[in-house]
Amino acid sequence: MTDAAARAFLDKLFTAAVAAAHPETCLPPALPPPPAQGRLILLAAGKAAGSMLEVAERHYLDTLGFDPARLAGIGVARHGYGRPTRRLEMVEAGHPVPDAAGLAGAQKSIDLAASATAEDLVLVLLSGGASANWIAPAIGVELDDKRALTRALLRSGANITEINTVRKHLSRIKGGRLAVLAQPARVVTLAISDVPGDDPAVIGSGPTVPDPSSLAEARDVLARYRIDPPPSVAVALRDSANESPKPGDAAFAHAEYHLIARPADSFLAAERLVREAGLEPILIGDNLEGEAREVAAEQAALARALKADGRSAVLLSGGELTVTMRGQGRGGPNQEFALALAIALDGALGIHAVAGDTDGTDGGGGDASDPAGAYVTPDTLARAAAAGLDPAAFLANNDSTGFFEALGDLLTPGPTCTNVNDFRAVFVEN
């Protein structure tokens, strides 16, 4: 297979994975009937917030003919991920570092939830990215302090569960607090999972579910990664008033939670295409965690073994890898995985790969135009040498974007308006 044909095949797998998790596909069958008497309050947050709000608004207003006067709500999505709505407000906000737009959008969401009555239905449309988009700092913590802490956590190598443990104890909306605010209304959450294990307490920092983590665990995360927090954060994490509501709290008596798309669903779609191509799909897991460069070395070894055995296969994996920042370069975990994979494969013939974030952006500065990931071909290192690029130096500087940008091998689909985290495919041809 030519390099162009292999790339087209990998693109087809990535596109199928994204489509399986898009709200246009997975949301309509899960939308609950509107309330008989009160208001329908739609609160959406995350990278899929715009598309979820758009689909839900169309369903209730057009398909069901619901009274527009009884519909209220707001969506807060990452910059560049908003979608056109007719009645409901759409806000674009910072991610992964929160900003003032997210602060204002979160406060409007809080106010709407707090206004709900027993006759109302609060429908929460949740997706990955909500933790940054719904930014409502605990009393005494300023936005700049949360921004500084977020940057430190992202550079530390902490995984998403650890990061969200800290976030939930510094918020007025995360860690079950949105459900508390919405009492006595019925609360239904429809979520697209972007976390390993699909834990509702981790997706979007669990705004409508009990939080099993504690203030002490949040402090432990900062100590483990040697993060010296701003003084206001240190004070807040010692204040028992910032402990999150736990399982058994009465606030969750009228709260429902449904997963409507998971990483596993996207990999099922990709596996079908691999089989249709006459190849062997090998799912390593949809919930991998760990350092991107270490996981890449492991998968390079697996790909080499398949090649040696004469098997034509595609290694598939997802999850959320991490990058411990040691340099000053650009790039997220998918691009770093691809760069480390290329180095480990060392030009092995017949092995192509793509690694990308299903939301359309991978790390970077938070712009919607940031790349989603990168491609690896058998001649990646040869082309780099011809261009005077040292792959090891780029990896040491965490500058995977700079490396693949120079080669023209960045994956750039733009905002996909959904998010089920990483998608990696290593194609071994024999």
From TrEMBL:
Domain of life: Bacteria
InterPro entries in the record: GK-like_C_sf, GK_N_sf, MOFRL, MOFRL_assoc_dom, MOFRL_protein
Entry EC number(s): 1.1.1.81
Domain MOFRL as annotated: residue spans: 314-422
One annotated Gene Ontology cellular component of this protein: cytoplasm
Molecular-function annotations in GO: glycerate kinase activity; hydroxypyruvate reductase [NAD(P)H] activity
Gene3D superfamilies according to UniProt: Glycerate kinase, MOFRL-like N-terminal domain, MOFRL domain
Residue ranges annotated for the MOFRL-associated domain, each copy included: 10-237
Class of enzymatic activity (EC top level): oxidoreductase
Record keywords: Oxidoreductase, Pyruvate
Protein name per Swiss-Prot or TrEMBL: Hydroxypyruvate reductase
Native organism: Ancylobacter tetraedralis
